[in-house]
Design goal:
99 residues, mainly alpha, 3 helices, elongated
């Protein structure tokens, strides 16, 4: 079989599948944040990223915990939106060149 024809491993345990989806969601959100953060600091548009990093980290931890525990949806959606807003803010800083 070719590399693109390999079967995706399907787990039958719902807990393992929830952990896998949570991990994939974290990677889809954390990696762009790290890239945007490094670009922002290197270009000088964000000289001190400490507060933004704390907000993003808190949002992602809350999102992951709420995802794994099955907490009510408003909490998970809000924590995801806060992390997304951090990425949007970094993108805006980079594109506008605000200092």
């Amino acid at each position: 079989k070719q590399w693109y024809q390999r079967r995706v491993r399907a787990y039958t345990d719902p807990w393992i599948e929830r952990i896998r989806r949570s991990h994939l969601n974290d990677m889809e959100n954390i990696l762009p944040f790290i890239g945007l953060l490094l670009l922002s600091v290197a270009s000088g548009v964000l000289p001190s990223p400490v507060v933004l990093c704390r907000v993003f980290l808190t949002a992602r931890v809350v999102h992951t915990i709420s995802y794994l525990t099955g907490a009510p949806q408003p909490l998970r959606a809000l924590s995801w939106a806060i992390g997304l807003l951090c990425n949007v803010y970094l993108s805006w800083l980079l594109l506008s060149g605000v200092q």
